[in-house]
């Protein structure tokens, strides 16, 4: 699965909406309007996960916009637009992302909410470190795998306390499209505190 290439393709669809439609005939104009609508949907879905400059409120607002557009298109076109299972999965993903805000607020409103952690990058890191711990023995029993996971989680804790100790890949950069699926919490610099997000205002704006 080439996630960065897929994201690049979706962003290209979004950029098609910037074309000048003045020279389009009626048929091309209808297709262009459909592409623009699809581009708006895709952009609302992608930005919260790949745009490190968005605040938590902007991320939530974008996801709500995506959810509303998706619901409208699915209601109008049904499974000819997308499979019902995929529709359900996407809406559940949006719900889970938004529910992270009130859940975090119940614990401590000053804590930051990282929607990017909904992905599997954390699991990739865990499995990568457990394989590193195994050295030249990549295969393991269940008990050995458990021990490796324990060691990998200890490493996570150590690196969290001393991030300067972690030797990160030199060629991994969030500015490269092929690494956009490896964005981590430290890459996001905007306001992400749970208390900073007004869900009702985001709902109305989205």
UniProtKB/TrEMBL annotation:
<protein>
    <submittedName>
        <fullName>Uncharacterized protein</fullName>
    </submittedName>
</protein>
